[in-house]
Amino acid sequence: MKMGVLALQGDFSEHLAALRKLSVDAVEVRLPSDLINLDGIIIPGGESTVIGKLATEAELITPLQEFGKRHAIWGTCAGSIFLAKYTNKQQPLLHLIDIEIERNAFGRQIHSFQEMIDISSMADKKDLNTQFQAIFIRAPMISAVKGDVKPLAVLANGAIVAAQQGKILVTTFHPELTDDLRLHQYFLTLVNS
Ligand code: GLN
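Above: inputs. Below: predicted complex with glutamine.
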């Protein structure tokens, strides 16, 4: 298996480190040709407007959309916005998952918070601990899931923070900023499916 991490902006190094801890061959994606022979890619957190602008300049929008028709892609935080069909600001999007997502939905003063969430829908069936420490940094909110998109995790207030449609996975938090590799492992099962 060979994985890529979109390395235009944001915390791509943490995703590369997580994949390498799982002994997965992982490379940075900056150009359309970097997608050749990859089995799946991760789009990191950062600033979705910047990721969209740099992806447009690198002529990566169409190649990423084509890649996502056949392969697994996981977006964390800004990456989840970039993968969405619709957001509340005008910016380049990949439209690969049928969700509406609201940027910076948790207010200006509370830019960052953590909450334990239940990931039993994504955890290994043998794993008895289904709690996961979810870190939200100026996070977006998934405001609508449509079609066959499956919500996978919610906050105590009911807000959806993880969703999946086929091989496209989004989480509005940052598993790459913890030492817990279970969501990276879950994503690798999608890559292999
Ligand atoms: N607020 C950022 C955006 O709108 C996302 C923040 C993040 O990725 N931590 O793109």
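The two ends are 12 Å apart (CA to CA).
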